[in-house]
Amino acid sequence: MTTPPDRRLVFLLNVAHRRVQRYVEAKMAAKGGLTAAQSGALFVLGQGDGTLIGEAAEALDLAPSAMTGLIDRMARAELVERRPDPKDGRALRLYLTDKGREAREDAKAGVEGLNAHLTEGFTDDEIAVVSRWLSSLQSKFPKGDPA
Description:
By secondary structure, the chain is mainly alpha-helical.
């Protein structure tokens, strides 16, 4: 039996991800060049200045090496700064700059608009089911689980 077109969940999820990602990247590039990953980092750091790079990587589901490159680019753009951890001289903590806080507010407004666009035409109950399903994927496919 063939899977009905509206139930090809892996295909639909992949297409939706690519289209939303392209849409987000184009919108963000038009508003100052932030990437989705940079916006995510700004949101994480905005919840707690002084976050360790490993903590930020974990929150964003990124490899530490990818996070380091991301923070390097953000530091060059003067969105974040690294400061030594006062208790562990080997560790660096990440802090938003004034420019980073401003960029975070712009990104937050963009995400709110995007969420409104994504949920348009659906009831709160329908969105709750979609949200629950998408959230369940994180436990069904844990980070680092190849199987």
